[in-house]
Amino acid sequence: MAKITLKNLRHSYYPNPKGPDDFALKEVDLDWQDGGAYALLGPSGCGKSTLLNIISGLLEPSEGQILFDGQDVTKLPPDQRDIAQVFQFPVIYDTMTVRQNLAFPLKNRGVDPATIEKRVAEIAEMLEVTDILDRKAAGLSPDNKQKISMGRGLVRDDVNVVMFDEPLTVIDPHLKWKLRTKLKELHQRVSHTMIYVTHDQTEALTFADQVVVMQDGEVVQIGTPEELFERPAHTFVGHFIGSPGMNVLPATIKDGQALFNGTAVALEGPIHPGTKGTLEIGIRPEFVSLGDTGIAGTVSRVSDVGRHAVVQVTIADTKISAVVNGTPPATGDTVHLQLTAAQTRLYADGWIASTPAQKESAA
C-alpha cells in the first residue's frame, strides 16, 4: 500500500501543445492517503482514464510527477509500480478453474504453494465463490467473472494500489448493487489503497470515502459524498451529482444582493468581493419548497418517483425543480417557491462565489 501524490501533473497527446486547450489533462495536484478508498468521477472524455493510465504507468505525463510514498515513479514501467488493475471487461483465463485464476498472480511471482493456497481461500471466502473454486471460468455468469477479476487484483497483499476502471459497466443493473456492496466490504477488510474510475455517480458515492470530480481535464472538486452534495464548489458538480441535479438560475447582483428574475434571493452568506462574470444561483431541489408566499411560477411537469414527487416549475424561461412530499400540485397550477437560504449559493463563471454565514458562538 502507498500514499499516492500527483504534483503539477499535465498531459497532452500533442507533441508540441500550444495552450490549455491542447491538454487532455490540465494541472492536477492530489494526495491520496495510504489505505483510502477514492473515486475518479466524471463524464466520458473528462480525463479520468488518462489520469488512471498515468498512475498505472501505461502513459508518461507531459509534465509533473507521480510519487508513491515519496518515491518518484513517473518514469517507471507498470511492472515496477506494484499495481493491480481491474478493467471494465473481466480479465480471466477461461480455460483455467476459478482457483487457478485467483492463484495465477501469486504463482507468477514465485510465491510458495502454502501461501498461495491460504490467500486464494481468503479471497474466495470474501467474494463468496468458495463453492465454485474448481469450476472452469468459461461457464461462469458475467457477475461471477467480474468477481474473479476483482479477486485477481486483490489476492496480492504487496500492491501499492488497486485500480478499478469502470468495473461494473457490463454487469446487469440488479447485480450492480450487490457487487458495489461487496467491493466496499472488501476495502474495509483488506485496507488496500483503492481508486475507482467511473462515470456513474451512484457507484462513486457508495464506494469512495473521497471523490475527485473531473470535467474537461480539470479537477473541479474533491470531497466526501456528503460535501459534494451539500456544497458543490462548481455548478457542474451540482448538476452532475444528485437526481435531479442542482437548479441553476440566471442571476444578477444589485446593492450586494443576488437577484433572480428581478426578485432578491437570500443566500447562504455574503457574496465574495469583486464578484463578476456569468452569475448564477444554485440550489438543490431538496431545498426548494412550496408555500403561500415566495417566487411565483407555473407547474410545467410533475414526476412521481415513489417516495416523493419532483415538481418542475417554470418562471420566465427558467425551469426550477422542487422535491415535494405529500400530494403535489397539478400541471398548470400557479405555485410559490421558497428557497432555503442556507442552501442557496451564488456562482460566478461556474465557481462558487458566496460564503456561508458564520454561526454565532455559544455564550
Keywords:
globular; OB fold (Dihydrolipoamide Acetyltransferase, E2P); nucleotide-binding; membrane; 363 residues; 2 domains; six-stranded mixed beta sheet; Rossmann fold; P-loop_NTPase; 23% helix; alpha+beta; five-stranded antiparallel beta sheet; transport
Explain this structure to me?
The protein is of the alpha+beta class. The protein folds into 2 domains: 4-230, Rossmann fold, CATH 3.40.50; 243-352, OB fold (Dihydrolipoamide Acetyltransferase, E2P), CATH 2.40.50.140. It is built from 8 helices and 22 strands. The protein has helices at residues 48-56, 98-107, 113-127, 142-154, 173-190, 201-207, 225-230, 235-240, and strands at 4-11, 25-32, 37-41, 63-68, 71-72, 83-86, 161-165, 194-198, 210-215, 218-223, 247-250, 252-254, 257-260, 263-265, 279-283, 288-291, 295-304, 309-315, 318-324, 334-339, 345-348, 351-352. The protein has a 6-stranded mixed beta sheet, with helices on both faces. A 5-stranded antiparallel beta sheet has the order 16-20-17-18-19, with no helix packed on it. Strand 17 and strand 18 form a beta hairpin. Helix 2 packs parallel to helix 4 (142-154). The longest helix is centred in the middle third of the chain and has 18 residues, at 173-190. The chain starts with a strand and ends in an 11-residue tail after the last strand. It comes from Shimia sagamensis. GO terms for molecular function: ATP binding. Keywords: ATP-binding, Cell membrane, Membrane, Nucleotide-binding, Transport. This is Carbohydrate ABC transporter ATP-binding protein, CUT1 family. Residues 4-241 form the ABC transporter domain.
